[in-house]
Model the fold of this input.
Amino acid sequence: MAERTRNLVLVYEPARMDFADFKQIRARIHSRAPDIEVFVISNAAPAMSEARRAAERPLLVVSPTRLRQYRPERGRIYAGKRLPKEGEMARLAERGVPVPRTALLTPEITFDPGEWGPYVLVKPTARGSQSTGAGVQVMRTERLRHIAPEDYPPGHPGRKGPMLVQQFIDTGPRPRHYRIMTLFGEPLVAYYSELIDERPPLDAPDAVLESACVATNGGRRRRVFFKDDDILAMARRAYEAVPEIPLQGCDILRDAHTDTLYVIEINAGGNTWHFSSPMGARAREEFGSADPMVDQFGAFDVAARVLIDRTRREAE
Done:
């Protein structure tokens, strides 16, 4: 047996992902890379003896979420973290990734239809509000006005945080977005979510348009696996723009009129390990189990391959 020369720590968040997933990845790495010792450590209650052993050799630490209780004594660290949406969009745009025009809705800013287009999408930034579709609406740009937090209706997420304005990307009468989960830029699973019910036509009266469900996580929807080389390549570009975030849930829109792709989010916080996350339960139910998600691209095999390469190159 080859001598172990490097260590890899996979940090899992017990409330968001299953230890068994990382155990399977560890087994694959051990079978293919006898030079690497893999430790799977809880972010909530790390075993100190394991942490000390991991620090005995050059080390790479990979955590889908931010590090909490586990504090490595050495090593290169890749960990998730929450990014402000407007900052995330700016970062992607600076690195040449196509994103919709984006700005916070403040009293000072004005929105010119000549720059933003005839329609905009308004959505909340308050923590915990972005996974339900609440508060998301499409409206004519000329009608957009700042609303003070206290003037939103009770329960509206605009009371808890600023609203974000984005250029409206028309994905068709049934709104659709593509989700690609990547690890260091390599796709682990890819599917699209599409509303079952059509949104109103864009020439509908303002009251009808602004009350319509246009968020794919806000109404009845279906999820479908896909493999589109252009979309997968765009997800890789998004990772390359923010390479310190190892696990990304990249959301992409395709303009129904021009076929142009836009990245709208990378979900840098790490709550996108939908093979076992609570948020992914509905997706697993629709797909029948977690197995189809794992099997689409051979997710755990891809993860093992990527992690072996990273550990050999970057453990320190």
